[in-house]
Write a structure and sequence with these properties.
Helix content: 25-40%
Number of domains: 2
Shape: elongated
CATH architecture of the largest domain: Alpha-Beta Complex
Number of strands: 17
CATH superfamily of the largest domain: Creatinase/methionine aminopeptidase superfamily
Order of helices and strands: HHEEEEHEHEHHHEEEEEHHEEEEEE
Keywords: Aminopeptidase, Hydrolase, Protease, Signal
Protein name: Xaa-Pro aminopeptidase
Low-confidence stretches: 1-28
Mean pLDDT: 93
CATH class of the largest domain: Alpha Beta
Number of helices: 9
Organism: Aliidiomarina maris
Pfam family, one: Peptidase_M24
GO molecular function: aminopeptidase activity
């Protein structure tokens, strides 16, 4: 991941300029936070048509299947990986493995990855509707009984010692084999092969959480688009103080994404804080008020889109100037700096091999030592907005998270650096203000790099 982006990536039609490769500070610099970037509009960035997205998406898939999956299967000590799912009940990993355009697992779809002695993979499909490259068709037809028998024969002929299936108690992304299909698999296989079936949990998580160079480049562009739409929404082009509502702004964001052909994976929302709104140390969230936006309000939004298979998750803050103000009050600027300091203290604790729980504990200690009132709830991101990998705190649990929080940090993985700080605001008679930030970043094994920079300046509505 640390090698330069190659000309091959440029051939995919993916812009690389969005990626800011600046290491985050080990000791947070309040006055000069690194990786700050101002984006004013999504119009600064190209958006490929749905047709033109097919080639880069499939190029990234082929690269992953050829180079990444064999490595991950070897690490998981799996000789074979089975993806078996049905239309309307697709396995969570399914769409990350099939060429586009694919909209469903038509009828019953079976993918087989068989690791050969030389380390290469056979990529096989046992389907009524063959996929073609990169899959070799091992069987095609219309009889379900024959399909299951073909799968059983294929497995028996290759005689794998450990066969991974997607069953998991704790990870929904790795639990895609339904009970009905699991039973049909057992019915089809000779009894001697039943004991070779093992959970592919580790492989599924590593497959979903690991990012390639090409994906990071595409991801940076996607995050830039998301930040650009937020900047548009948090401006006088959209907001008329005293008239525009928070719901109006949320629906502007949703419609703007729709017009750009960028699917939102959750409904964006917009809230505000103002003098007199309750905010205490015990409250998880203070920015919950909705309605007409007035001058002097502090605004917050949370948005998420997907583009070129990469899903973003972004939270940013804005201030509506009063008629006698020409700049954001100093107390708010100081509070945002504290938010950036919290980000730096968190990212400084990213060390390969540390668990999410260990990173959280170290982050809490560092913030307490710095006198910062903070809450950390950072999560992996990628093919899903809430992706598998190390959970680093939950908004409703600032202690250890069993299992998911025990997962170690790996290089070449991406995260929504999410959390908040609370700080007394002198201009509001020392009422607490909450700064809620979420910026997408990746960890290259040594440093945390924000994919499209991060918010270090307030959005201003004049």
């Amino acid at each position: 991941m640390t090698k330069p982006i190659t000309a091959q990536l440029l051939a995919l039609g993916i812009a690389t300029a969005s990626l800011i490769a600046i290491p985050s500070a080990i000791a947070a610099d309040r006055d000069n936070p690194s990786q700050g970037r101002v984006i004013t509009s999504a119009d600064e960035f190209a958006v490929l048509s749905h047709r033109d997205r097919i080639a880069p998406e499939n190029a990234m898939l082929n690269e992953r299947l050829a180079n990444l999956l064999p490595q991950l299967m070897a690490e998981a000590e799996l000789d074979m990986w089975l993806i078996i799912n049905r239309e309307y009940a697709e396995d969570p990993v399914f769409f990350s493995l099939v060429p586009q355009p694919t909209f469903a697992a038509r009828r019953t779809t079976m993918l087989v990855f068989n690791r050969l002695a030389n380390g290469e993979l056979e990529k096989l499909s046992v389907n009524t509707y063959p996929y073609g490259a990169p899959y070799e068709t091992a069987w095609s037809g219309g009889d379900l009984t024959e399909q299951w028998q073909a799968l059983a024969t294929l497995i028996a002929d290759r005689d794998p010692s450990r066969i991974g299936i997607n069953v998991s108690t704790h990870w929904p992304e790795a639990d895609g084999l339904t009970k009905g299909l699991h039973q049909q698999l057992l019915d089809a296989l000779p009894a001697a092969l039943h004991t070779r079936l093992v959970s592919a949990e580790d492989l599924a998580i590593r497959w979903l959480e690991t990012r390639t160079d090409a994906e990071i480049s595409a991801f940076a562009h996607a995050v830039s688009l998301a930040r650009g739409v937020i900047a548009e929404a948090f401006s006088s082009r959209v907001i008329t103080p005293g008239a525009t509502t928070t719901d109006d702004v949320a629906w502007y964001i949703r419609q703007r994404f729709e017009d750009l052909g960028l699917p939102a994976w959750f409904m964006p929302y917009v809230t505000f804080q103002r003098p007199g709104t309750e905010c205490t140390d015990a409250m998880p969230f203070c920015s919950t008020t909705t309605g007409v936006i007035e001058r002097g309000d502090v605004l917050h939004t949370d948005v998420g889109i997907c583009y070129l298979k990469m899903c973003t998750d972004t939270q940013e803050m804005a201030y509506v100037l009063k008629v006698d103000e020409s700049e954001v009050p100093q107390g708010l600027r100081d509070a945002l700096r504290t938010g950036n300091q919290w980000q730096d203290l968190l990212s400084a604790e990213f060390v390969t091999g540390r668990s999410g729980n260990e990173i959280l504990a170290a982050t809490i200690a560092a913030n307490e030592n710095a006198g910062i009132v903070s809450s950390t709830y950072t999560h992996p991101i990628g093919f899903f907005g809430h992706a598998p990998g190390p959970t680093i705190g939950m908004w409703d649990n600032q202690g250890p998270t069993p299992v998911n929080g025990d997962w170690p940090l790996y290089p070449n993985t991406a995260y929504a650096i999410e959390g908040n700080i609370k700080q007394a605001l002198p201009e509001w008679d020392n009422q607490l203000i909450q700064i809620m930030l979420e910026q997408s970043a990746y960890f290259d094994g040594e440093r945390v790099i924000y994919l499209a920079g991060r918010q270090t300046q307030w959005h201003v509505i004049r």
